[in-house]
Amino acid sequence: MKIGFIGLGNMGAPMAANLAAAGHAVTGFDTAGVSVDGVAPAATIGAAVQGAEAIFTMLPNGAIVRDVHAQIVAAARPGALLVDCSTIDVESARAVHDLAVDADLISLDAPVSGGTGGAAAGTLTFMVGGAEGAFEVAQPLFDIMGAKAVHCGAAGAGQAAKICNNMILGISMIAVCEGFHLADSLGLSRQAMFDVASTSSGSCWSLNSYCPAPGVGPTTPADNGYRPGFATELMLKDLTLAADAARASGAHAELGEHARAIYAAFDAEGGRGRDFSALLEHLGRA
After folding, report:
1. β-strands 124-129, 112-113 pairing
2. What is the set of active-site residues?
3. What pLDDT tens digit does each residue of the chain (286 aa) get?
4. CB-based burial label for 33 (10 Å; 0-12, 13-18, 19+)
5. DSSP string for the chain
6. Under a CB-based contact definition with an 8 Å cutoff, are residues 152 and 127 in contact?
7. In the chain, fewer beta carbons within 10 Å around the N or the C end?
8. How far apart are CA 6 and CA 23, in angstroms?
């Protein structure tokens, strides 16, 4: 397929590279002018999407997604598949979906989980909102970039699933970090803590697969000086989206709001640019 890819940052670049490596003709655009192996560079958004059968976007926030999608619909050919993989608010996801449909484009919101490692390895999980038929069209491309794609429902459902999932992740990582911090304070070795909790009722992904303690369990960003991974400011962004969604919908998410406040403080006190699991180190210094 001829594919346009807008947003070639830490996530978008390896995703676009995997599509190109699979034999698709990928043209990319990024405001930073980055180059990606196998991806032809374009000088403008319009040039990147012209004639494309599928168009992917991976962008920082809802306002930018709205602006970029307005430019895409003005240049894309009718019937093209438009997939936004950004993590944004549900309202913006539904707004750009309507914009695309009005321009005779096929639209999906498909935020991802798996971080930069999953993007490079092609093992991402896609949480997808939009029509079933559109999901079926995109499935072969999701299979190249990821290990799993879940059709979550109508437009915006992918974003809803993403912010709910990441609220759970943010809360659980705080619990794991506080558990290790308490173990340190009580003189319990981190290895013993991991060996017990990872095989008993404390078991969770944040502990078993993304342990925040260096030298314990599988290799994680903690073993690389807490280089992200998943940066603290991105977790804060997702928890803020979850908190905003909870207020707007009347849902009760007190732990989600508390987790947001903890990461906001960590972000302001040296966490920005570091993996969100570096909260463990921060607790040890507090």
Report:
1. antiparallel
2. 162
3. 999 999 999 999 999 999 999 999 999 999 999 999 999 999 999 999 999 999 999 999 999 999 999 999 999 999 999 999 999 999 999 999 999 999 999 999 999 998 888 999 999 999 999 999 999 999 999 999 999 999 999 999 999 999 999 999 999 999 999 999 999 999 999 999 999 999 999 999 999 999 999 999 999 999 999 998 899 999 999 999 999 999 999 999 999 999 999 999 999 999 999 999 999 999 988 7
4. exposed
5. -EEEEE--STTHHHHHHHHHHTT-EEEEE-TT---BTTBEE-SSHHHHHTT-SEEEE--SSHHHHHHHHHHHHHHSPTT-EEEE-S---HHHHHHHHHHHHHTT-EEEE--EESHHHHHHHT-EEEEEES-HHHHHHHHHHHHHHEEEEEEEESTTHHHHHHHHHHHHHHHHHHHHHHHHHHHHHTT--HHHHHHHHTTSTT--HHHHTS-SSTTSSS--GGGGTT--SSBHHHHHHHHHHHHHHHHHHT---HHHHHHHHHHHHHIIIIITTSBGGGHHHHHHH-
6. yes
7. C
8. 18
In angstroms, the CA 57 to CA 236 distance is 21
Exposure string for 224-235, b = 16+ CB within 10 A, e = fewer: eebebbbbbbbb
Residue whose token pair is 């093992």 = 123
Q: Which residues contact 162 (CB under 8 A, 6 or more apart)?
A: 87, 111, 112, 113, 127, 238
CA dist 93 and 86 (Å) reads: 9
Whether 223 contacts 215, CB under 8 Å: yes
